[in-house]
Write a structure and sequence with these properties.
The protein has helices at residues 2-12, 14-27, 31-64, 72-122, 126-130, 134-176, 178-225, 227-232, 236-288, 294-311, 314-336, 396-403, 426-431, 447-452, 460-469, 473-478, 496-510, 526-540, 575-579, 585-593; strands spanning 357-364, 373-380, 385-389, 411-416, 419-420, 433-436, 514-518, 544-548, 560-565, 568-573. With 599 residues, it is of the alpha/beta class. It has a six-stranded mixed sheet with strand order 6-7-8-3-9-10, sandwiched between helices. The protein has a four-stranded antiparallel sheet with strand order 2-1-4-5, covered by helices on one side. The longest helix has 53 residues, at 236-288. The structure holds adenosine-5'-triphosphate (ATP).
């Protein structure tokens, strides 16, 4: 009954259904293995439940037999023992088959699940990742995978055998003596119902406990990340006190959860004591009327031991299943969330012929409360170099993100060589654009691999040429492992300027027809910038280029400069015209920077 309640309860929750569906979709690819895993344990359990019948026969013979030198009794006693041996060996062999199959099946599905999560997760939009913590996403993927292992283990090794065993024992006992069968049936229903109820009762306490665990872990991680701040602001004492308050809450939550568990265990064990007593009490009455034999007592006792040892864990199995499902559901939700930016079903690859870019009356907002880009229109000719300038927060980086289709527009169109970017594949669009971001992030891989990321089939010689052009070579050659140096998580072991140079090297290697430079040299000193400007100038040749810069000296030589303010075009012109436009924003910015350098 508990099992039935469990499944009914689960069936009511949509996300749980989705979790099981996801697990099933991944399992059914190996249909034969699933069938073996479900059928063979049933056979093994049925065989194990048959063995006590031979023990019964054995003790029935033994109870009336006298030692017999002729060996007739010995032969009679040996037969059930041989039967038990054969049954035991068969069950042993069947369980070995199940284990063997499982050793292939489960790791296979776990790997498939990890692959599916990886693939689906990476197709989520840029916004999706901006709004989430990396660590939390990684944890969710791991939890989903653990949950699959946990759920299948619980079903295969616990719930399924328990159900079959209990059913088989009830049938045999009814067959032997209907009253004993009825007592055991009634007891099983009450026991499973109560265990299920207790498991549900305990859930909120377990949830509170794991919530307090999470808070303590998060605080610990945050404090370790901020270790330098704690030292700088001499806050170790305060931090420790705050941490102590959280561990105190964790202690209370854990104690309460364990006490509730102890209460549940006490009720379960008392039910078991009552069962043993009642069954034997009734059995003695039947024996006294000659309706039960010694063998029946052995049968009853063996069955009780088989059942009780397994039923003891029933509440825990249910609780574990709920926990695994709750763990999995967070990730399933992500897997069920449609990708925000998707290829149009008829999307074709972008064909860049000349590199003409048109922003046609585009508007965009990150949140509905505020429009960041407002009716922005701009035509960029083939091979034209356009500088985007404007106050911080004006929307310059957002324009670049929209051109890369990291977000879909609220209205308007962005057109490249006559093709709306919403109608081409995202992959082909991004393949046609070289992009150097403000703060490039690198993989924790070698510098060689990081630069080669610009074009993954580039030869070592091509990587070196790009690296030299971007003046990466100088600092890389000073590192002990040179190009084989690992750069740390997100490239943390490199300075901002070094990371920028790696990003420029990547763009040089990629050599895409459209180039976007977002403050590409902002982290470089004037000397390095001068050297790299030269490399960038060469890279820009023949390419349609958009350059965002705060230091106006870097965009002076652009064909056109677009001054953006509050998501709109404020002024457009060459450096020469804008710098002489009286009262113009560009002129003001230029004077503030006194020819490129802030005074
Ligand atoms: P800066 O020169 O300082 O880099 P910018 O002109 O490039 O500024 P954007 O980065 O495009 O400006 O930002 C424009 C506005 O959009 C800002 O007000 C910013 O706070 C907001 N914004 C940027 N990214 C996001 C985001 N992911 N979610 C919500 N708002 C954002």
């Amino acid at each position: 009954m508990g099992i039935v309640l469990f499944w009914l309860h689960l069936a009511m929750k949509q996300i749980t259904r989705q979790t099981f569906l996801l697990f099933w979709r991944h399992s059914r690819r190996y249909g034969l293995l699933v069938a073996i895993q479900l059928i063979v344990p049933v056979a093994a359990v049925l065989i194990e439940t048959t063995a006590p019948l031979f023990y019964k026969r054995f003790f029935d013979i033994l109870a009336v037999a006298k030692p017999d030198a002729a060996g007739a009794t010995v032969a009679a006693l040996t037969r059930p023992i041989i039967a038990i041996f054969i049954l035991g060996s068969t069950a042993w062999a069947l369980w070995r088959i199940v284990h063997f199959v499982n050793n292939h099946f489960q790791p296979r599905v776990l790997a498939d699940l990890a692959d599916s999560c990886f693939e689906y997760l990476h197709e989520h939009s840029y916004r999706f990742f901006v709004n989430r913590f990396v660590g939390a996403l990684v944890r969710k993927v791991n939890r989903l995978i653990n949950a699959y292992e946990g759920v299948t283990d619980k079903i295969q090794w616990d719930l399924l055998p328990l159900t079959i065993r209990t059913g088989a024992i009830l049938v045999v006992l009814f067959w032997e003596n209907y009253l004993l069968g009825a007592i055991l049936l009634a007891w099983t229903i009450i026991y499973l119902g109560i265990s299920y109820g207790l498991a549900i009762l305990k859930l909120p306490y377990d949830e509170k406990r794991s919530a307090s665990d999470t808070i303590v872990t998060a605080r610990l991680a945050d404090s370790i990340t901020n270790n330098a701040n704690i030292k700088l602001f001499t806050a170790a004492g305060d931090e420790h006190r705050e941490f102590g308050k959280l561990t105190e809450k964790q202690f209370r939550a854990t104690r309460l959860a364990w006490n509730v568990e102890g209460f549940a265990d006490a009720i379960q064990s008392s039910l078991m004591v009552v069962l043993e007593f009642s069954i034997f009490y009734v059995a003695i009455r039947f024996w006294s009327r000659g309706m039960l034999t010694v063998g029946d007592f052995v049968l009853i006792q063996t069955y009780l031991m088989q059942m009780l040892s397994r039923l003891w864990g029933f509440g825990r199995i249910i609780r574990d299943l709920y926990r695994y499902l709750a763990d999995a559901e967070e990730m399933v939700e992500i897997l069920e969330t449609p990708h925000e930016v998707q290829d149009n079903p008829n999307a074709k690859p972008l064909a860049v012929t000349t590199g003409v870019i048109t922003f046609r009356d585009i508007s965009f907002d990150y949140a509905q409360t505020r429009t960041v880009i407002k009716n922005f229109s701009l035509d960029i000719a083939a091979g034209e170099k356009v500088g985007l300038v404007g106050p911080s927060g004006a929307g310059k980086s957002t324009l670049v993100a929209l051109l890369l289709r990291f977000y879909d527009l609220t209205s308007g169109q962005i057109i490249i060589d006559g093709q709306d970017i919403a109608d081409v594949t995202q992959e082909s669009l991004r393949a046609a654009i070289g992009y150097v971001p403000q703060d490039p992030i690198l993989f924790h891989r070698t510098l060689m691999e990081n630069i080669r990321y610009g074009r993954r089939d580039a030869t070592d010689a091509e990587v070196l040429t790009a690296s030299q052009a971007a003046h990466c070579d100088e600092f890389i050659n000073q590192l002990p492992d040179g190009y084989q140096t690992y750069v740390g998580e997100r490239g943390i072991k490199l300075s901002g300027g070094e990371r920028q140079r790696v990003a420029i090297a990547r763009a040089i290697l990629k050599n895409a027809p459209i180039l976007l430079l977002d403050e590409a040299t902002s982290s470089l000193d004037s000397h390095a910038e001068k050297l790299i400007q030269e490399a960038l100038r060469r890279l820009m040749e023949g390419k349609t280029t958009i350059v965002i810069a705060h230091r106006l000296s870097t965009i002076m030589k652009m064909d056109r400069i677009v001054v953006v303010r509050d998501g709109r075009i404020h002024e457009v012109g060459t450096h020469e015209t804008l710098v002489h436009k009286s009262g113009g924003l560009y002129k003001q910015l230029w004077e503030l920077q006194a020819g490129g350098f802030i005074v």
